[in-house]
Amino acid sequence: ADVLVIGGGIAGHSAALAAAERGAASVVLLEKTADFGGSSRQAVGGFAFAGTDLQREAGASDSNEELRRDLLKSGEGNNNASLLELLLDRQLDAYAWLRQHGAEFAYARPAAAGSAVHTHSNWGGQAVRALHARVLSHPRICYVPGQAAERLVRGDEDRTSVVGVRLGASADQPGILHAAGGVVLATGGFS
After folding, report:
1. Cα distance between residue 102 and residue 166, in whole Å
2. Distance CA 76, CA 38 (A)
3. Would you say residue 2 has pLDDT above 60?
4. Contact at 8 Å (CB) between 117 and 66?
5. What single-letter DSSP state applies at residue 159?
6. pLDDT tens-digit profile of 61-107?
7. Between β-strands 119-122 and 3-6, what pairing exists: parallel, antiparallel or unpaired?
8. pLDDT tens across 129-184, in order?
9. C-alpha atoms less than 13 angstroms from C-alpha of 156 in its C-beta half-sphere
10. Is 22 helix (H, G, I), strand (E, B) or coil?
11. Cα–Cα distance, 23 to 25 (Å, whole number)
């Protein structure tokens, strides 16, 4: 494989699609359970975005500053500052990318003043189901369910670069899967 992605939730599906769209010749997406999606598939909630078209259509005003304030409050000030800024800088790109890949969002303006206005509903794991359909139809992505990655394999020379994974016992898979272009860890540990 050119790129190996470990974890079949929304992060793993997004990473696999992005790698293929950016030119990876072959992408393998490993999921340790028989079903895709992890907690993303079972989620009954939404995504936090600020400044979307759905908010504007509903007459809601929102901004990165308000989203920052609310994320800092919910994180009790323990947020990683650089990751928070990265999220704020790219959250609308992520929203657009998800929608381009079939995710559907609903937005209802909160009735109470001061209520969180960021939540964009996506019920029943619809986003990860949409991404999964795209993964399955992509000619350069191989989705492998029911295959655990047990251990990272480091390169022989410097032993600091990751070049693949040791797979869990399986009759139809090799013991080690190498990735020429990189390994992406997108696991949440749900299952």
Report:
1. 33
2. 27
3. yes
4. yes
5. S
6. 899 999 999 999 999 989 999 999 999 999 999 999 999 999 999 99
7. unpaired
8. 999 999 999 999 999 999 999 999 998 776 788 999 999 876 565 588 999 999 99
9. 1
10. coil
11. 6
Spell out the alpha helix ranges (H) of the chain: 10-21, 38-42, 53-57, 64-74, 81-100, 126-137
Q: Are 125 and 37 in contact (CB under 8 A)?
A: yes
Burial of 89 (0-12, 13-18, 19+ CB in 10 A): exposed
CA distance to 2, 28, 38, 72, 143, per residue, from 7 (Å): 16, 10, 8, 28, 10
Smallest Cα–Cα separation from 52: which of 43, 42, 63? 63
pTM: 0.88
* Joined tokens for residue 176: 């080690």
Retrieve residue 134's tokens.
């795209």
In the chain, the percentage of residues whose pLDDT exceeds 70 is 90
- The residue type found at 71 is L
Residue recorded with tokens 């992509």: 138
